[in-house]
Amino acid sequence: MQWLKKILGRDDKFFDLLEAGAEEARTSVLLLSQYLQTLNRGGPPPQLDDFVQTRRKEKRIRYQMMEQLSKTFVTPLEREDIEALSFALYRIPKAIEKIVERLSIYPGRVPHTAFLRQAELLTMAADAVVFMVKGLRSGTHLEKVREANDRLQHAEGEADKVMLGLLKELYHGPFDTKELLILQELYEMVEQAVDRCRNAGNIVVQIVLKYA
């Protein structure tokens, strides 16, 4: 029966890959938090290669997903939904890598405490995404998905508030023009990473609603 299972696309390979993608996305977020905490303590930060490898793993997962989609006749979820969620997950570690690259070349003193709160909210968002993606395999009840999505939306909303507060400090603080522009861009990049988690969560909600 295994051959029939593969033809019908009822094995778990798509769920395995989506869950692996969500886990890699969360790993990149945890690495960012570790990076900021290490800088705050004055120690040597994690190697940039750690972030590069996480993004490359996510990219390989995405390629495997595309390969499996091309081989499988019937999929457990609609192809468009699988592709959209896979791409949304891939964009998270890609965004994190860019943030760390910019931080690593920033010539001034990085305001670590400002970024730590953003990283905390980003971690909350990534945890919610992992929970939601893992729920697809067993057909998570809509209420559980909504609860996780509420946590995700809360993190995104709080990130917006934190962003506004950070901008206020920038505009009223003793920063020169170049420093202000660089820090503003960095704050916005972290907020965009939270938005990418929200986008992935929204896709999961749409999938669950479709099959509810």
Automatic annotation (TrEMBL):
It comes from Opitutus terrae (strain DSM 11246 / JCM 15787 / PB90-1). It comes from the Bacteria. Belongs to the UPF0111 family. This is Phosphate transport regulator. InterPro entries: PhoU-like_sf, Put_Phosphate_transp_reg, UPF0111_domain. It holds the Pfam family PhoU_div.
